[in-house]
Amino acid sequence: MGADGHTGDRAIEDLRARFDALHRASRRGVARSYDERAADLRRLAAVVLRRQDDVVRAVSADFGHRSRHETLLAEVFTTVQSIEHTLDHLAEWMGPAPRPVRWLFQPGTAEILPQPLGVVGIIGPWNYPFQLLVAPLVYALAAGNRVLLKPSEFVPRISALVADVVRECFPEDQVAIVDGGADLAAAFSSLPFDLLFFTGSTRVGRHVMRAAAENLTPVVLELGGKSPALVTPGASVPSAAVSIMTGKLFNAGQTCIAPDYALVPRDARDAFVVACKAAAARLYPTMAANDDYTAVVNDAHRARLRALVEDARGKGATVVPLAPAGESFEGLPKLAPVLLLDVDDGMDVMREEIFGPILPVVPYGGLDEAISYVNDRPRPLALYPFGDDAAVLDDVIARTVSGGVSVNETMFHFAQEDLPFGGVGASGMGHYHGREGFEAFSKLKPVFRQPKVNGSFLLRPPFGHAIETALRLLLPKR
Prior knowledge:
Strand content: 5-15%
Distance between the termini: 69 Å
């Protein structure tokens, strides 16, 4: 990338050359066997485990500071877990799945045969720059594809490490990686992939989908949005506050499924504020010099978050600090967390995805009002209902639509490998993780097999009494 932030012609030519090499290899017509795919995944897991300390250092350097344990949990553990789960089930997923055949077409047989799509493009984000690039790669490789990766330009050290891992594990005609800024990302999205997988903001996702449409390239979009935590009437406010603060402050809120705002019964609002202060103090007794508390990724993002708070303050919101009194964040890459009270829809913080340690608190009168509040806005990537009444929680889940749900917890549904992960509406389309991850990167080819002796002659002209009899049996009576 040039000094002006733009990608040069040589980088675009290199991008196309890498894609062409992958495309030629994918069209040779020989799918990788189970043994080859399993070996690919085992090799990748071994390198990830061996270089886990390098991952920790690289991410922390890019962020200005990232908690070691957050990186090990969110980048290393989740990636290795995806590989292990995939290896446990890969033979089953790759096998043909029989489907029933109606009597008229018997003794024919039907099955679904998973096949590689071909060349898959994966564009990764900056907030979890290792896991959200490598985990989709796991499913793409499990499905037998060739893959071209594009990491975020905002985290150059971890992007370089991912490139090292890829080159150590795979030949360039199986997995290749390119580096560059917005121009290269636009060129990347315009390539005729067999599938394009993007994780990032809703705004950029629209550009990716528009570019992919020119080639009729199918897309999986893992986006974001404003995921609500809903504290139902009668819920344990202190317990809910601990889970909500954990989800909001993990990675300093720079998580697509972090709780974006909290809906709280009006008569419990003040108790919720007190409980959030206590929870934050319990989780992070100090923050400015605490290795467990992560920095905000760069100056531009910090400035955007500060502007959200000041816009809300200027329009009447009350700002409640959550950092210990007297701690100074001056000159640090970290940002002090806050609650925002008395918010309204005229504030930028209630219109944009926050992606930082800021939690607006929205009081409501009754549960119907809270559910309407959620439903009147774009579909969220996650929903977090809290409470002890199972019927109330089930009612919330049934009457709202979201990408996923964690009940009495935040974010944990993402870590369940047998649950598909993905958004809905403005928060994304398509799924990955587990079987759904394998299937997202596969063509599920329907195959009908006709034996030599069969009754298909009944369905061919010249038509006569046989087809009339068959139709009388097939068509429902009026």
